[in-house]
Write a structure and sequence with these properties.
Radius of gyration of chain B: 22 Å
Largest interface: A-B, 60 and 62 residues
Bound molecules: iron/sulfur cluster
Shape of chain A: elongated
Low-confidence stretches of chain A: none
Radius of gyration of chain A: 22 Å
Distance between the termini of chain A: 11 Å
Mean pLDDT of chain A: 89
Structural class of chain B: alpha/beta
Strand order of the largest sheet of chain B: 3-6-7-2-8-1-9-10-11
Helix content of chain A: 25-40%
Helix content of chain B: 25-40%
Oligomer: heterodimer
Number of helices of chain A: 10
Mean pLDDT of chain B: 90
Strand order of the largest sheet of chain A: 3-6-7-2-8-1-9-10-11
Distance between the termini of chain B: 10 Å
Shape of chain B: elongated
Order of helices and strands of chain A: EHEHEHEEHEEHEHEHEHEHH
Structural class of chain A: alpha/beta
Low-confidence stretches of chain B: none
Chain lengths: 286, 295
């Protein structure tokens, strides 16, 4: 079973919610947390663990054996990314930064051995034990690489091999197709938002995505006391979603964030919010 | 001159810093603002934009579709899709359009001609307006579930350049996306200067280091602004990083509730609360930018 935490722009408290929720949910489930915000993975920092068990994520890239290539240009024609350019005589060349590793060129090439297996390192996945009794899977895109999708796919595959009762996924911000990839197969989406105009804008988009994907959505309002809560309610109703938690603006949370000490483990009133939410989720998932 | 403002991650206040700096520079310089965070654009909100003068649809994303009537259900496409986008649902092989990258591999491997087609879909929209402050703003919005493409940002910058030429505008200020992916690379590529915004937390330090590697790749000079500077007094990581990499720190903005309040008012903090602590710090930063960067 899988559920996901997502939200609009970074800074809405998405990772804070994911990490604290994971800790609270371990009471009910044997779980794993997957940090699929591969451009800026931070859950390990909030959990104060060093990433471990690094595995490289390689991507296919074509290499040409020019002694075999017949310069038919088929590879260049089929490449949707226009990553292969051909010289006047048809000799193909690869522009590595554009290549998405899809293998279409290899599939279409009529000459066996003209396209060889090359690879490029895109990033890594990690599997880290946390002091809280659940493992953390992290995907991390290499600086300078553009494609998050292979890392999200690889990290998700790795998390699934753990075969846990519950997989809690922390997605990137926004609603691009890598976020949909992270969300895919979730039974429930916890959308974290702020009652600011910016938060409302992003909330609408993520609820739209959840609707398109047929995922039940719950909303957690962070810094609930600073803005226009009524507007949040309107949007939530429009999407048949539900507000399941409100976190007030809290110095205690900022302090715990800065110190790397999960708030749910303290005896503050904020801790209760996460514990209640975990209970609600456990009841829903049954 | 092209100035890109980046942070490696959202939530550190990059956009509110960018909006304030643009506001403080607009009277002395001719400039155009580009919101390159197509996944979650917000400069238009911070500048109170209510109407767009011009919009262009960006067609270009492709998604695969399977004709269930002619499909022989061999499953090869699902096996070969590099991103696991094809699933057997209710007895039919179906492409998840919200995760498809449009690479066309499924169409190539499908044994039956014409079952799978690649269709062009809209990936988003690019828009232009003149803000009430007089300078133009280009912004983009990616459609839900579309590939987060650097192309959108490249298109935005091209449009901005055309306007700069037409109107004799000198500077482009780009509020880049969070993260380090293709949109950020497209934002930083071709910029003359990068201004990095970070907050004194381990998470933000880790992110800003990552985006700095991208900046180094382009060999652009970088400057650092520390936001919420007094949030974590014991934390020295940002200073050590700046010193080790020789990045000038051009300002420290104290944590100030005037910033979230100004955001709910849809105004840059320097306009809404010009005498707040944060605004004072931002004004000093603007002076340094005038003296050392834009000149
Ligand atoms: S692997 Fe795909 S993207 Fe890369 S060159 Fe071949 S066809 Fe183009
Ligand atoms: S498809 Fe194969 S043979 Fe044809 S140009 Fe490409 S590499 Fe050469
Ligand atoms: S076009 Fe590529 S990503 Fe999309 S379904 Fe086909 S193989 Fe998968
Ligand atoms: S490869 Fe073609 S025929 Fe086979 S399941 Fe996929 S779409 Fe159907």
């Amino acid at each position: 079973m899988q559920i996901a935490v997502s939200g609009g722009k970074g800074g809405t408290g998405k990772s804070t919610v994911a990490v604290n929720l994971a800790i609270a949910l371990r009471e009910y489930f044997d779980l794993a947390l997957a940090d699929l915000d591969v451009e800026a993975p931070n859950d390990h920092i909030l959990l104060r663990v060093e990433l471990q068990n690094e595995e490289p994520v390689h991507m296919f890239m074509p290499r040409f054996d020019y002694s075999k290539c017949t310069k038919c240009r088929k590879c260049a024609e089929v490449c949707e990314e226009n990553a292969i350019i051909t010289m006047k005589d048809g000799t193909p060349f690869l522009m590595p930064t554009l290549c998405s590793g899809c293998r279409a060129c290899e599939i279409v090439c009529p000459v066996t051995g003209a396209i060889l297996e090359g690879e490029k390192l895109m990033g890594h996945t990690y599997l880290t034990e946390t002091p809280y009794g659940f493992p953390l899977v992290t995907g991390k895109l290499l600086e300078g690489e553009e494609r998050a999708m292979p890392i999200v796919t690889a990290a998700k595959r790795r998390a699934k091999t753990l075969n846990k009762e519950l997989l809690l996924v922390d997605t990137a911000a926004g609603t691009s197709n890598t976020v949909s990839k992270a969300l895919e197969d979730s039974k429930l989406l916890i959308a974290v938002t702020e009652p600011t105009p910016l938060g409302l804008h992003d909330l609408t988009l993520i609820l739209e995505l959840a609707k398109l994907m047929g995922i039940e959505a719950w909303v957690v309002v962070n810094r609930a006391d600073i803005g226009e809560k009524q507007r949040v309610k309107e949007i939530v109703e429009r999407y048949n979603a539900e507000i399941v938690g409100e976190i007030p603006y809290s110095e205690a949370i900022i302090r715990s964030y800065v110190k790397g000490e999960p708030i749910v483990l303290t005896d503050s009133k904020e801790a209760g919010i996460f514990r209640n939410l975990a209970k609600k989720i456990a009841n829903y998932l049954g | 001159m092209q100035v890109a403002i980046a942070s490696g991650k959202g939530g550190v206040g990059k956009s509110s810093v960018a909006a304030s700096l643009i506001y403080l520079l607009k009277d002395e310089y001719s400039l155009i603002a580009v919101d390159a965070d197509a996944d979650a654009p917000n400069l238009d909100l911070l500048f109170g934009v209510e109407m767009w003068e011009e919009e262009k649809e960006l067609i270009g994303a492709k998604v695969a579709r399977i004709n269930t009537k002619t499909c022989i259900k061999c499953g090869i496409c699902a096996e070969r899709c590099p991103y696991d986008c094809i699933k057997l649902t209710n007895g039919n092989y179906v492409v998840n359009e919200l995760t498809c990258e449009g690479c066309g591999v499924c169409r190539l491997v499908c044994p039956v001609e014409g079952v799978i087609t690649l269709e062009e879909v809209r990936s988003g929209i690019i828009r232009k307006t003149t803000t009430k402050y007089g300078f133009p703003l280009i912004s983009a919005q990616l459609d839900v579930g579309r590939p987060n493409s650097g192309k959108l940002v490249t298109e935005e910058k091209e449009w901005a350049k055309r306007i700069m030429k037409e109107k004799g505008i000198e500077h482009m200020i780009i509020d880049s996306a969070a993260g380090i992916g293709c949109q950020v690379i497209a934002s930083l590529g071709g910029a003359d200067v990068a201004i990095l915004v970070a907050e004194p937390t381990p998470a933000s330090l880790s992110d800003v280091k990552r985006v700095y590697k991208v900046v180094q790749h382009f060999r652009e000079p970088a400057y650092l602004i520390i936001n919420k500077a007094d949030l974590n007094p014991g934390f020295k990581g940002l200073y050590e990083f700046a010193e080790a990499e020789n990045i000038p720190i051009i300002g420290e903005i104290p944590y100030d509730r005037a910033i979230p309040r100004s955001m709910t008012m849809l105004k840059p903090v320097v306009e809404a609360f010009p005498d707040s602590k944060a605004s004072k710090a931002l004004k000093e930063i603007a002076e340094i930018i005038k003296g050392e960067i834009l000149r």
